[in-house]
Amino acid sequence: MEELIREIEKYKIIAIVRGVNFLKMEPLFEALYDGGIKHVEITLNTKDACKSIDNMNNLYGSRMVIGAGTVLNAKMAKDAINAGARFLVSPNVDEGMITTAISHNVLPIPGAMTPTEIAQAINYGASMIKLFPVSILGPKYIKELTGPFDNLKIIAVGGISIDNAKEYMEYGAVGLGIGGSLINNTIIEDGDFKAITDYAKKLRNSIL
Fold this sequence. Notes:
By secondary structure, the protein is an alpha/beta fold. The chain has a single domain, classed as Alpha-Beta Barrel (TIM Barrel), CATH 3.20.20. It has helices at residues 2-11, 25-34, 49-60, 74-83, 95-103, 115-124, 140-145, 165-170, 185-190, 193-206; strands spanning 13-17, 39-43, 65-69, 87-89, 107-109, 111-112, 129-131, 154-157, 175-178. The mean pLDDT is 97.
């Protein structure tokens, strides 16, 4: 898990894939990889999510790290792990999700917003936190949190785009979870995967 944390800190971006058709997954992953994205979560409220996780692992597991998102509890965690997810992301703090992940040597990234929720997640064993929804409080909130939680590793999620990604990093995030601005479902349905590759490259360049 420590090695994976270091990789996320190095590459900084976790692409959030939600609601994408199973048949579109392969060209989407190829477009993300060509754009320099190494970490992708497929949310479990996507149709055939576990099937997609398994299939993308078979196709891209040697080049990319594939995880599951919207993992709300221990049962969902087990399903995702059985499908091959290497990290689990949630919008909430659930002890069962966190401990199940850790027991299988899979990285949990629980979602928290308040200091109390963050402390609770840490007490359950999490070492990386998804700050969500970060757009409500803004980048400066991250700096405030890293005062009392000086070793906290924050993945900022919610409303991140090229326009504000660098600011979130400057205020202390170690990574960014990016969905809608990067994984544009309309563009995917239109088959314009080059647009996703181009946006991914611009996004990465914006935080270098």
